[in-house]
């Protein structure tokens, strides 16, 4: 049974006239008559009573009209779902992110994306950059939010945000009285830091920066989570060099100071290259929203 036959039947039932119905569906009257006849042959019962003045539905035709309208409505919904999927408006997206972005960047992206694409289910997974690259390769996640560099040649990436490092100091620290610092000002300080195996890119970039200033940080305590590291700062164990957006994590006993010569840390979105063909519309929609959301933050 063809949808066009159903459309022709509904038009005839509503217009009650072959000529008007034919004009409505943009066919000649004879073609419409043949279409209705073919439909009746397929159903096996008469659907319309033909008179010289008007067309009336048989009892079977009235019942068939209800189902025909439902079928056409369902077909239209199915077509629209396909079109929305092609535009990235429905479906499921799994996003990996490094833990620090939970304090700045990730909330803005997810909030904006859900407002624009409420019918896309977003699954968030907190992962290291290495875990994200493995997850992207294996198809466990669709997009990764991480720091540069992205090492896997099978992945594409797009810059989202650039943020400088800042100094996190105990509130009573002498350097906290200054408005701005240079990294060389911290050469004699004790540091708290991530274990290198968890944040290798970040760790190495900071170490190179400090080395260029003529010293190697004296790391006296390591911790896995950002709040733990900042708690250690508040306790006076050492200083820490977080990315600027961690200033949003206000903690009693911790003050943040800008560093004049701080390097910029690149935050990127990464995805599988073949994602352009496999579920690409949703990924592209997410990337566009992420770029706009973080661009607005940077502009503010």
Question: What topology emerges from the helices and strands here?
Answer:
Blueprint: H1 3-15, H2 18-25, H3 29-43, E1 48-50, E2 55-57, H4 59-86, E3 91-97, H5 106-116, E4 120-126, H6 129-138, E5 143-147, E6 155-164, E7 166-170, E8 190-193, H7 200-212, E9 218-222, H8 226-234, E10 254-258, E11 264-272, H9 280-299
Parallel strand pairs: 3-4, 3-5, 8-9
Antiparallel strand pairs: 1-2, 5-11, 6-11, 7-10
Helix pairs in contact: 1-2, 1-3, 1-4, 2-3, 5-9
Percent helix, as a range, is 40-55%
- The string of secondary-structure elements, in order, is HHHEEHEHEHEEEEHEHEEH
Total helices: the number is 9
CATH architect. name of the largest domain: 3-Layer(aba) Sandwich
Count of distinct structural domains: 3
> What's the CATH class of the largest domain, please?
Alpha Beta
The CATH homologous superfamily of the largest domain is termed Periplasmic binding protein-like II
Q: Give the termini distance in whole angstroms.
A: 58 Å
Uncertain stretches of 5 or more adjacent residues: none
Shape: rod-shaped
Radius of gyration: 32 Å
Number of strands: 11
Query: Which sequence of strands runs across the widest sheet?
Result: 4-3-5-11-6
How much of the sequence lies in strands comes to 15-25%
């Amino acid at each position: 049974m063809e949808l066009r036959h159903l459309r022709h039947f509904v038009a005839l039932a509503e217009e009650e006239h072959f000529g008007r119905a034919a004009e409505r569906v943009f066919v000649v009257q004879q073609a419409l008559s043949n279409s209705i006849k073919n439909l009746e042959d397929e159903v096996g019962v008469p659907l319309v009573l033909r008179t010289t003045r008007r067309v009336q539905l048989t009892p079977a035709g009235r019942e068939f009209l209800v189902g025909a309208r439902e079928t056409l409505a369902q077909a239209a919904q199915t077509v629209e779902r396909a079109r929305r999927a092609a535009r990235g408006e429905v479906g499921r997206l799994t996003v990996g992110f490094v833990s620090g972005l939970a304090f700045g960047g990730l909330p803005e992206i997810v909030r904006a994306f859900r407002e624009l694409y409420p019918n896309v289910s977003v699954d968030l997974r907190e992962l290291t950059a290495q875990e994200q690259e493995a997850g992207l390769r294996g198809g466990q996640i669709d997009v990764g939010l991480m720091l540069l560099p992205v090492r896997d040649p099978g992945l594409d990436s797009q810059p989202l945000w650039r943020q400088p490092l800042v100094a996190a100091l105990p509130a009573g620290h002498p350097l906290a009285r200054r408005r701005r610092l240079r990294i060389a000002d911290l050469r004699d300080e004790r540091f708290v830091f991530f274990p290198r195996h968890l944040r290798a890119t970040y760790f190495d970039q900071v170490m190179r920066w400090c080395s260029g200033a003529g010293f190697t940080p004296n790391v006296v305590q390591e911790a896995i989570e950002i709040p733990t590291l900042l708690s250690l700062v508040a306790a006076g164990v050492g200083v820490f060099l977080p990315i600027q957006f961690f200033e949003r994590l206000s903690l009693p006993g911790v003050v943040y100071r800008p560093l004049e010569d701080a390097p910029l840390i690149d935050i990127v979105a990464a995805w599988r290259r073949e994602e352009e063909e496999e579920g690409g519309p949703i990924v592209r929609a997410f990337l566009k929203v992420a770029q706009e959301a973080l661009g607005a933050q940077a502009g503010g």
